[in-house]
Amino acid sequence: MASVFPALAGLLVGACYSASLFGEDHSPVPLVSTINEELAATLTKANQNPAPPAPATTYLRRVTYDLAGRPPSAAELTAFLADSSPESRRLLVDRLLASPDFPWHHANELDSWLMPRERSRNDWRDYLVNAARENRPWDQMFAEMLIGKEDNPAQAGALQFLKVRAKDLDALTDETSRIFFGIAVNCAKCHDHPLVDDWTQDHYYGLSRFFERTYLTKNNRLAEKPFGEVAFKTTAGEERKARFMFLTGATVEEPVVDWSAERKKEIEELIRKAQQDDQQSPPVAEFSPRMQLVDLALSPENRLFFARSIVNRTWARFFGRGLVMPLDQLHSSNPASHPALFDALTEDMIANGYDVKRLIRAIVLTDAYARGSAWLEESEPPPPELYAVAALRPMTPRQFAMGLLVAGQSPKAFSDQVQSANWPAVRHSFEGQSAGWASMFEQPGEHFQVSVDEALFFSNGTRIQNEVLRDAGNSLIGVLKTIAEPREAVRVAMLQILNREPADEELDYLAATIPAEGDVRIAALRNLVWSLVASPELRFNY
Amino acid sequence: MSQENVNKLWTPASHGLTSRRDFLTAAGAGVGLAAANMTILDLLKTPSLAAEMKSSRKHVILLWLAGGASQLETWDPKPGRPTGGPFRAIDTNVSGVQISELMPKMAQRMDKVAVVRSLNTRVADHGGGADIMETGRAVEQGLPYPDLGALMAHELGRIDSQVPDYVSMYSSTEGRRRGTSGFLGGRYAPMFLTEQMVPENLRRPEQLVEHDQTRRLELRSFLANRFQQGRPDLALSSHASAYQRVRGLMASEKLFDIEQEPAEMRAKYGPTQFGEQCLVARRLVEAGVPFVKVARAWWDSHGQNFETHLELVAELDHVLSTLMDDLADRGLLQDTLIVTLSEFGRTPNINPSLGRDHFASAWSSVLIGAGVQGGAVWGKSDENGQTVADGEVKAGDLFATIYEAVGIDHKKEFHVGSRPIPITDFGCAPIQKLLA
Question: Model pTM?
């Protein structure tokens, strides 16, 4: 393909800040062949052909949204298409993983998963971004979220995970289990789990006992009471006291402390004061149930839940579905679609110190990830668990917001920004701008549907008109105004917004709507740009 | 679309069909079944689904008495008791049934009203009470359950509807809640009106001429149709159907404009905001909107309960009776269910500020119209109204009754992932005596 912007291509020489770091390494990327072979084997077994690989432009767009949380610039597109070396994709992936974009995007992904309902506080977001920057191991992050030290500035933000749930023992229990262990244990609250033999009420209340003593002081610090019980009634009507029990059935015994009634009363009074007076520090508890939970959950005998959950969630982020579905049903009666692969990835995750980036790097370099997302054969589309066709995934609110922000910009201005030494600061400011846009869109869940509110917002909302469709010189429409040839205007708009060349049919149809000159030309350009930003192609990662 | 794609969605397991709506979402986007409604398509698939037929063209108007209305000053007066307060009870046109004297107009229409006097919903804080009374069940972690409006929009709406299918009006800032479509997804979220009487983004901006908007939608369709090739995906279809509904919804703007009503009709509802919103609700229902919620605030009378209720109940009496009459005159009442709900009722005990506090142990609600046995009263509170004396009703029982009244099988289940989720809370059943 001819260079899209010959003038811009020159800017790229030597401009990729980190490619050189990885450029020398020709060793195979770990796990890629494992995944490829396992997925190929199931395709063979099902006698199913996969969809052909996605075009290079599609792959670039897909992986840039997935790793950097934004669209590729026109210059990045030109450079990638110009690179015909067999290493081009690996270099691209390593550049994106090392870019200043990745920590922002990775933090956004973790945020929407760990805090689905809350508006994030700054210390929490800072924690996630910093952890993503240094690729902090997932087990360490888990420990920081559960037992981080308030006095350690690198950890304090992590405690927001518990703080926002501290007043609700069911939320602490169930969401910790669901998020970190991949188990929705709440079905076992009122009765033993109806479908899964693994879970009984003992497990639910056993897990909740690790959180029962957790409370917030008046000055918003997390504390644990030195004593406390969880009692529950079984379906048979028996009153039972919960043990400290993990999902595997492993238990912890608390050292026996014989609290005198007086001492107990004193401590309760201190706790009450700490909850009411922001000067009062809470009484110290020698025995920390949450610390016990972290130890248990990460111990070699019990860590499979923790490891499998992060593997499954990471997989689902890039493939649109987990190796086990639903993501919070990782129990024995719900097997993985590819059991051997799931085991191999889980072992690798443990053996490499819960390095999530290692798994991400492998996934985006697999054949399955790089396939086309359309099934154009006569036959029925293959079932999704065969990974024969790449998943169509709705953009997250943050990704979509970045797509819209970039869509309104001059292609050259955006390309220059991404290449500039100032990009880390610019990316940071983009993050702030995109937050407002993002708040207007719904976080896609399992049964995501686009709401009519969104279509009305695009159709009539002033924000689209005033920001995406503005025609100042540094905007996309400002640039399109200066392009005399309608077909070229269509090309430039499509490259900026959808990150690809138009097909001939599109070029013919769209260019015919743009008069070469006259008063209505700007209106026609706005209509063109609107139709591109409101198209499903911008709304989905495909 | 592939069977696999169909199967991964929640399906109404009660009759083992593919979800009606999901089938349509995909079919509607690809095949363009103009004006098809769920019922027709179901009949194409399965010839005898009487229950499904029954639920076609039903509507629900929910009057949400935000803050908690007193049962003693409305449907369950206790005259002469220490808890009774200053107001009398009056006879109604149903023999043996008395209501508060603050509702003389409703007293003459009780033959069309079904009353529940034995709600025990247990939770007596605003947030928790609203959670229960919006969804008919307690909140469950990890399972965002849709509220009544979203569920009704899903069950009673048409996929390609030219009107909104869930409109929620909540003008007060006190206790305002947006409502949630939960696991049903954004397609069923309410069109939510707060400050203005007309929903946001329904009107074309002035700088955009109609011709350009038409052109934009044409260009968008062209691009979307190309993109959809080979991608039979429900989220993608929902994107298409959302845009397909834009023009129709914009045309429904006039439904929100009560200036379109004759002055005489507006005078009947009265010049209050609640009255005007109920008039809008009637206009919406008449145009085919399946669910409208009108919230009236703020009933939370911890002090001066009787002054508050003197004003609010009188207004409720007037507006509710007007709405009933208007719907009946138009032949709509037989297909429209009016329900009153709150977070909870109010304590029989009168506090030192002459207020009544939050009370969820024995309170009242009424159902009027579609599917309802007029003149029926279910349940009893004790002589002072402190506890349920007979026929205890949980939120889930009341919701099951609402479902059946508009022809929805209360035993229906959604499937969220592999998990069956009954629409009726565990252990609850409809109150048959209140159903026609």
Answer: 0.82
